[in-house]
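Q: How would the structure tokens look for this protein?
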Amino acid sequence: MAGGPDHGPRPPPPAGPARRLAAVGDLHCTEEMRGAVRPWFAEVERQAEVLLLCGDLTDRGTPQEAEVLANELSGVRVPMVGVLGNHDHETGHGREVRQILRQAGMHVLDGESFTLDEGLGFAGTKGFAGGFGEHLLQAWGEETIKAFVAAALDEALKLETALAKLRTERRVAVLHYSPLRGTVLGEPAEIHAFLGTSRLQEPINRYHAHAVFHGHAHRGTYFDRTNRDVPVYNCALPLLRRMDPPQSYAVVEV
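A: Here is the predicted structure in token form.
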């Protein structure tokens, strides 16, 4: 379990009925995948109320890849909420990718919130790296290190701002990077610090999120909890494909 500060008594569980969410990240859609993605989501509206897309939706972050993915998702009949990942920024067209996906009906969050109804709301941001717990990278030394840490702090602040805006019975955080070490276990230990940061866990605990979904750690672990007992799901597609039976997306009741 990941460590971190305690933020007071846990809130009572939501009174309303549980909601079913489908979640997946790391689609890494390329132009050659035209026609391949649509079948993955053919049944999603029968299984969930919302589809969460947890970053690395494209492979190199080109507008052409985003157009392919937008067309593939055009058949989804439930609300789509997502964030971009590091791959979606690779060629410097992150804003264009975001706009194309928004035009396709996806609520692409970058420090923003989306309220489905009074019972369910989402806060999302990409997140960033930096390590976990006592091994958290600190802003000391070279300016490049300070800038790296500043980027992680900025993403944590964006998540906090988005969570603070939600007044719904259930609050769900959507990320690309992991907020705790537990869901990156299985990846080489040498790269754990590049797969997320526990700085993201602070606002999750403080605002009593009811669940967190992320991707990025292809060889990580599907499930863990923060030290405030918030469930965290790693929904990277390569990880879901290795489950028994293989999945195109996770379906979770929140």
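The CA atoms of residues 116 and 122 lie 8 Å apart.

The radius of gyration is 17 Å.

Upvote if useful.
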